[in-house]
Design goal:
With 414 residues, this protein is α/β, with parallel strands linked by helices. The protein folds into two domains: 189 residues, FAD/NAD(P)-binding domain; 160 residues, D-Amino Acid Oxidase, Chain A, domain 2, CATH 3.30.9.10. It has ten helices and 19 strands. The strands form four sheets. It has an eight-stranded mixed beta sheet. A six-stranded mixed beta sheet has the order 9-2-1-12-19-18, covered by helices on one side. It is globular, with a radius of gyration of 21 Å. The structure holds flavin-adenine dinucleotide. The site of flavin-adenine dinucleotide has 39 residues, from α2, β2, β3, β13 and β17.
């Protein structure tokens, strides 16, 4: 990373708004930017990158900085896998995205992707397994079906009672989330993209196009097109359109310290894992880069406002993961908590993403609804969003359309 790009990211991390002119002044960015992307999480960073690759002049704006600690993309690690049961669309996107993640990891100073493998396991032969295997066969993925004896042999550090089979994806693993987004934004800036730190007010326009966006300092920024990739903040920016279609929920994640010298929970011996648990999923990672063994309950937590969500873990959630570990990871169940993080999912009603035009303003694209599984798809989502913005794709995929987004939560994508 060059000195300039390092400084850009450090300024972003420190909340320095110095890139903008004085509050209250008006400034046209037309001529500088063809497209303004608001939100530098994983979806915004990849959207900006793909637009830049398509030759567009892009300004990327974020209120707090790329993958800051309260953004959904701001966590330590995110799983990438192609097991999606019947949802072949997400298996394909994950596979397509993996190539981009590996390439980014190869360019970065520190790894963005750890090929730890991913193991899903099941108490019974779920349709999810059969469907995932069919899709993977068609994609040519080397996914293995593991019987209980093989699970015990390969992963003796886990307790396998009640498990009927496993699905092992050797090519997938862990993405270092915050690092990945920050490296990508640094690359974008180095390649001539503009990053600005500013909070954008909920946009307003009376016609069929958005003419400009206003920062909280009162400055107007304008471009031909706009993409809003604001994760759990989307309902606040577009309360009429998304206030009842994106549901941010509180999610807690825990990291435990293995015993000194115990490498059974290192990436060399333990893959990323998820216990399907009849749809009530627990998942986690080995001790990546010494941060500790990670575990979380995938069930949606209470509804939260990302600006008010206190980031202190609850004793109930800690007790819940310890109870789970007693069952499946007994050697870790009483180990000390190394770290806990509180984040939020930004769920659509059924878990499908939103990548569609604003219903009134035809130069505005709305991108979000990552729904607890979006990170891995960042490259594919960005490519897709860029194609809609540049007009190389005329219509959104029906599953990503605004029209398909319900107002009642009924999670279907796992
Ligand atoms: C605990 C947890 C575990 C997860 N695990 C996985 C996993 O294992 N695998 C996986 O694939 N996915 C996972 N996800 C989901 C994934 O992390 C998210 O879907 C993804 O990061 C969403 O990215 P985003 O860019 O849409 O939103 P964000 O990362 O939240 O980015 C939105 C950005 O918009 C900015 N913004 C908002 N409002 C404004 C404004 N008014 N002006 C300027 N900027 C603004 C914010 O500051 C923020 O930086 C997990 C999520 C969580 C919380």
């Amino acid at each position: 990373m060059s000195a300039i790009t390092r400084r850009t990211i450090l300024m972003a991390g420190a909340g320095a708004g110095a890139v903008l002119t004085a509050p209250g002044s008006a400034r046209e960015t037309t001529g500088q930017a063809d497209i303004i992307v608001v939100g530098a999480g994983v979806f915004g960073a990849w959207t900006a990158t793909h637009l830049q690759r398509a030759g567009k002049k892009v300004t990327l704006v974020d209120a707090w900085g790329p993958a800051h600690s309260r953004a959904s993309s701001g966590g330590e690690s995110r799983m990438t896998r192609a097991a999606y049961g019947p949802d072949a669309i997400y298996a394909r996107m994950a596979w397509e995205s993996l190539a981009e993640w590996k390439a980014l990891s190869a360019r970065a100073e520190l790894p963005v992707f750890h090929r730890s493998g991913v193991l899903f396991f099941f108490g019974q032969e779920e349709p999810y397994v059969v469907q995932s295997l069919e899709v993977h066969r068609a994609l040519g993925l080397p996914t293995e079906r593991l019987e209980p004896a093989e699970l015990r042999r390969r992963f003796p550090q886990m307790a396998w009672d009640g498990v009927a089979l496993g699905l092992y994806e050797p090519d997938f693993g862990a993405l270092m989330a915050r690092r990945a987004v920050q490296v990508l934004v640094a690359e974008f800036v180095k390649a001539g993209g503009r990053y600005e730190q500013a909070a954008i007010a909920p946009p307003e326009a009376s016609g069929d196009r958005l003419g400009g966006i206003r920062t909280s300092g009162g400055e107007m920024l304008s471009a031909e097109h706009y993409a809003f990739t604001c994760g759990p903040w989307l309902p606040k920016l577009f309360p009429d359109v998304l206030g009842r279609r994106i549901f941010p929920t509180r999610q807690e994640v825990f990291f435990f310290a293995p015993e000194a010298g115990d490498d059974r929970f290192s990436p060399a011996h333990l893959p990323g894992w998820a216990d399907f648990n009849q749809g009530d999923i627990f998942y986690g990672f080995p001790d990546l880069e010494g941060r500790g063994f990670k575990i979380a309950h995938d069930a949606h937590g209470i509804a939260v406002d990302p600006d008010r969500n206190e980031r202190t873990h609850t004793p109930e959630a800690l007790a819940e993961v310890r109870a789970y570990m007693r069952r499946r990871f007994p050697a870790l169940a009483e180990r000390p908590l190394a770290e806990a993080r509180v984040c939020q999912y930004e769920n659509s009603a059924n878990g499908d993403f939103l990548i569609d035009r604003h219903p009134r303003w035809n130069n505005v694209l709305l991108v979000g609804g990552g729904s607890g599984h979006g990170f891995k798809h960042g490259p594919a989502v960005g490519r897709y969003a860029a194609a809609l913005l540049t007009g190389t794709l005329a219509r959104p995929e029906p599953r990503f359309s605004l029209a398909s987004k319900g107002e009642k939560e009924a999670r279907a994508v796992h």
